[in-house]
Structures are given as structure tokens and as C-alpha cells.
């Protein structure tokens, strides 16, 4: 039963599509026939009146010719005008008849156009340039197939709008982000001096030719702790270009990590004399020089009785001579170095015996 109802509905719709133009066509023909009959009747009346007028004028002219020759010219003019009116009436009748014929032809072509619903090749065989067909009322989108899309959109002359400009700063980089109200390319000009001259050979820039509404470019290889002046440029797909006002961004300073590593002491030696001993060592970074010494073992660098000699100059190669020592006596030594960051290193203990002096 469901399939029967569906088939009946489809059949009814198809019949309505076919009959609608037929009914309109019949009404149009009936209307055209009435118009033709009215026009022909009107023409017959006009011609009858014209002929009657012509005969009357002619009789009048014949009677007046004998009394006034000048009337001959006037009557001749009237006769000519009458014939002209008669001709115009006939011509109008023919034009009206031709117009009705064209209407019938146009409607016939409009009716044929409905066949496009079931015969897609109709346009190919009949074309779409016929003005009669172009003036048809066509349902279900057929009108679009005949007339096409005749709209001619105006050219895009509006420049893009730049908004939401942000920068992210690094020590040698600046990231620039922004948005546009339409798809555009990306470009950022930058310079350390003002004004920023766009497209100048001395002005640096970064760019991206792909179009988008959300933009991000990175300026790299910049000098730390420096102010840069930037200008954004965006171009839409129609070639409209917009630029931002000049704005500045300052790169960050290079952050040097704190030095917490003390110097490394190496090559420590003690060379004795009769009353002197020379202490020599090296460090892996610039540092001061200090020598603790005592005849007491072990040597305590924090004891108040422990003597020392110091040199505050920063150097990598250290040498201090300890003088006034007793001859033939054993002495104990430690060296200490402090780098520029205050990191301190103290060596292990070394022993050296002065000579007898003989």
C-alpha cells in the first residue's frame, strides 16, 4: 500500500508538471485569438470609415472644382492624408498580428523548454540565446540554466584591517603576531633606526606568501639588548595592501649564569733555599694568590698562629716566595686562590725543608 501511495503521488506530480504549461498555453492561445479578432474588427471599422470619408471628400471636391481651383489642392491633400491613414491602420494590424504570432512562438518555445526536465539535451539542441526563450518563466532552476548568472560583482578595493598585534621578545629574536579581517600575506619590516623605509634595499624584512587571517613571523639573528622598529604589511588576494603604524620592540639582555665554580689548582711545587722557599702553582681561571705556612704539622689555615703571604692580582700563573725561614727546618705550606666571583679553592698541604745554608 505504501508503494502504491508513493507511485500515485509521483504520477500526480508529473501530470501537474505536464498539464500546467498546457493549460497556460491554451489560455494564451484563447487570449491571442480574441485580441486578433478585436484587432481585425477594429481595422475593418477604421477602413470603412476611411473609405467613406474618402468618397465623401471626393464628391465634395468634384462639386467645388468648378467654382474654386484653389480647393483642388486642399482636397488633394485631404485625399492623400486619408490614404496614408488607411495604410497606417493596415500596417498596425499586420504588426499586431505579427506580435501575437511571436507571442505564440515564444510560448511554444517556453513550453518546449519544460522538456528539459526530462531531456537534458534540450539546451544543447536549442541553445540559450533565443530572446523568446530568455523571456520565459521557467520553474525548478531551469531559468538559471537559460539565463545563467549575469551578476557582475564589483572589484574588491577595500584594504585589509590589521588588529591584535603582539610581540614575544628573546635575546636575539622577536616574534610578531597579528590578525586580519580577510586572508592576506605576511610581511614585517624592521630596522634599528627611524624612519623605517619600506622596500628600501637597506631595510630588512621577513615574509610569508601564503594567505591567512592569523599571522606569526619570527625575526631572528638580532642584537641583544637593542631597540628595533617594526612595520607590518598585509596584502589580500585582490592586491590591496595595508601597513601598520611603526612600533618598537626591545630584545632582551644576555643573561650570564652566576659563577659558582671555584678555580682548579694544579702544578703546585715548593723550592727551598737556606732561609727561603718559593711556592709556584697554576689555576684554570683568573684568581688571586695566597700562601699559608707553618712549621707545625698539620697546617691549620684558620689558626691565628699560622702565617700567610697574599697577592690580590688575578692571574693564571702564581708564584710567592716565603722568606725569613730557619735553616734546615721543615715547613708546611698550603695555597689558596679566589676567582672574580668569590669562589675560593684551597690546596692540600705540601712540605719543604730549608737548606743548611753552608
Question: What does this protein look like?
Answer:
There is one protein chain. By secondary structure, the protein is of the alpha+beta class. The chain is built from five helices and twelve strands. Strands 1, 2, 3, 4, 5 and 6 form a six-stranded antiparallel β-sheet that branches. Strands 7, 8, 9, 10, 11 and 12 form a six-stranded antiparallel β-sheet that branches. Strand 1 (162-169) and strand 2 form a beta hairpin. The protein is rod-shaped. Mean pLDDT is 75; it is low at 21-26, 40-87 and 128-134.
List keywords for this structure.
alpha+beta, 358 residues, single chain, 5 helices, six-stranded antiparallel β-sheet, 34% helix
Concise description?
It contains 5 helices and 12 strands.
Largest sheet: 6 strands, antiparallel
Name the helicity range: 25-40%
The number of helices is 5
What is the mean predicted local confidence, pLDDT?
Answer: 75
State the order of secondary-structure elements, H for helix, E for strand. Answer: HHHHHEEEEEEEEEEEE
The CA-CA distance between the termini, in Å, is 140 Å
- Tally of extended strands? 12
Low-confidence stretches: 21-26, 40-87, 128-134
General form: rod-shaped
Write the layout of secondary structure elements.
Elements: H1 2-65, H2 70-113, H3 122-126, H4 131-134, H5 142-147, E1 162-169, E2 174-191, E3 204-219, E4 227-235, E5 241-243, E6 247-250, E7 265-272, E8 277-294, E9 307-322, E10 330-338, E11 344-346, E12 350-353
Antiparallel strand pairs: 1-2, 2-3, 2-4, 4-5, 4-6, 7-8, 8-9, 8-10, 10-11, 10-12
Helix pairs in contact: 1-2
Amino acid at each position: 500500500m505504501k508503494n502504491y501511495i508513493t507511485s500515485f503521488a509521483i504520477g500526480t506530480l508529473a501530470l501537474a508538471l505536464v498539464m500546467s504549461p498546457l493549460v497556460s498555453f491554451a489560455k494564451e492561445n484563447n487570449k491571442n485569438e480574441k485580441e486578433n479578432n478585436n484587432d481585425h474588427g477594429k481595422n475593418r471599422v477604421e477602413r470603412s470609415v476611411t473609405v467613406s470619408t474618402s468618397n465623401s471628400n471626393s464628391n465634395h471636391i468634384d462639386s467645388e472644382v468648378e467654382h474654386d481651383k484653389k480647393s483642388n489642392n486642399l482636397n488633394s491633400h485631404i485625399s492623400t492624408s486619408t490614404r496614408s491613414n488607411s495604410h497606417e491602420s493596415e500596417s498596425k494590424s499586420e504588426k499586431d498580428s505579427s506580435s501575437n504570432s511571436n507571442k505564440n512562438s515564444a510560448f511554444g518555445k517556453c513550453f518546449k523548454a519544460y522538456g528539459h526536465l526530462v531531456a537534458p539535451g534540450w539546451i544543447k539542441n536549442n541553445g540559450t540565446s533565443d530572446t523568446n526563450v530568455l523571456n520565459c518563466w521557467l520553474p525548478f532552476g531551469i531559468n538559471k540554466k537559460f539565463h545563467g548568472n549575469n551578476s557582475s560583482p564589483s572589484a574588491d578595493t577595500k584594504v585589509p584591517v590589521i588588529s591584535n598585534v603582539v610581540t614575544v621578545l628573546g635575546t636575539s629574536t622577536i616574534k610578531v603576531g597579528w590578525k586580519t579581517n580577510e586572508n592576506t600575506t605576511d610581511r614585517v619590516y624592521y630596522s634599528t633606526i627611524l624612519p623605517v623605509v619600506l622596500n628600501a634595499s637597506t631595510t630588512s624584512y621577513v615574509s610569508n606568501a601564503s594567505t591567512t587571517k592569523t599571522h606569526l613571523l619570527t625575526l631572528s639573528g638580532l642584537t641583544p639588548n637593542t631597540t628595533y622598529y617594526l612595520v607590518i604589511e598585509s596584502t589580500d588576494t585582490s592586491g590591496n595592501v595595508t601597513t601598520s603604524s611603526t612600533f618598537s620592540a626591545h630584545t632582551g639582555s644576555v643573561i650570564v649564569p652566576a659563577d659558582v665554580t671555584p678555580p682548579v689548582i694544579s702544578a703546585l711545587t715548593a723550592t727551598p733555599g737556606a732561609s727561603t722557599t718559593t711556592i709556584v702553582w697554576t689555576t684554570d681561571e683568573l684568581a688571586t694568590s695566597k700562601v699559608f705556612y707553618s712549621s707545625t704539622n698539620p697546617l691549620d689555615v684558620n689558626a691565628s698562629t699560622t702565617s700567610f703571604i697574599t697577592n690580590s692580582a688575578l692571574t693564571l700563573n702564581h708564584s710567592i716566595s716565603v722568606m725569613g725561614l730557619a735553616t734546615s727546618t721543615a715547613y708546611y705550606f698550603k695555597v689558596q686562590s679566589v676567582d672574580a666571583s668569590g669562589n675560593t679553592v684551597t690546596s692540600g698541604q705540601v712540605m719543604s725543608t730549608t737548606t743548611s745554608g753552608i
